[in-house]
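lol forgot to send this yesterday, sorry. struct tokens for the thing we talked abt
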């Protein structure tokens, strides 16, 4: 609440009530202005967020599929290495297995930020929807307050 416009309430009952009602109206207006944003911009951001979230989930799933698609057994590579005797002499099956495991672990670690970003986008979109609903509610409160305020004889 903006404290720069605060003044102590009057002592008599009618003035105090008028002061309270005016302060409530200012609070509702401040809240409504704080939550306001363009509906079209909010819709565009929401659609863009959903698309980015889907792309990130698909990339994460793709990397996980790639991890399982990479063969874990060194004998899969022995056919390709078998033709080149210099490579065959320098690389042992255990080393190939360790390299494959390291590659799979690296790919998994690299894919985790994709999942994390997708989850963050989902949470932000949900918070944006909550803020949009809160703005709608404050707009309704503002209109109701103005209707009642104009009906009062203050």
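and heres what i got for the seq, position by position
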């Amino acid at each position: 609440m903006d404290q720069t416009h605060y003044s102590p309430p009057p002592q008599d009952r009618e003035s105090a009530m008028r002061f309270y009602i005016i302060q409530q109206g200012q609070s509702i207006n401040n809240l409504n202005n704080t939550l306001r944003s363009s509906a079209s911009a909010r819709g565009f951001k929401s659609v863009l967020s959903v698309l980015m979230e889907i792309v990130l989930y698909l990339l994460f799933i793709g990397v996980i599929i790639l991890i399982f698609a990479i063969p874990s057994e060194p004998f899969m590579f022995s056919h390709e290495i078998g033709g080149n005797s210099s490579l065959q002499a320098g690389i042992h099956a255990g080393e190939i297995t360790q390299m494959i495991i390291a590659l799979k672990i690296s790919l998994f670690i690299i894919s985790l930020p994709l999942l994390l970003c997708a989850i963050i986008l989902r949470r932000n979109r949900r918070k944006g929807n909550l803020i949009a609903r809160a703005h709608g509610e404050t707009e309704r409160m503002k209109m109701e307050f103005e209707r009642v305020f104009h009906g009062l004889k203050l």
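Helices lie at 13-35, 39-69, 75-82, 85-90, 93-151. anyway ping me if u want another try
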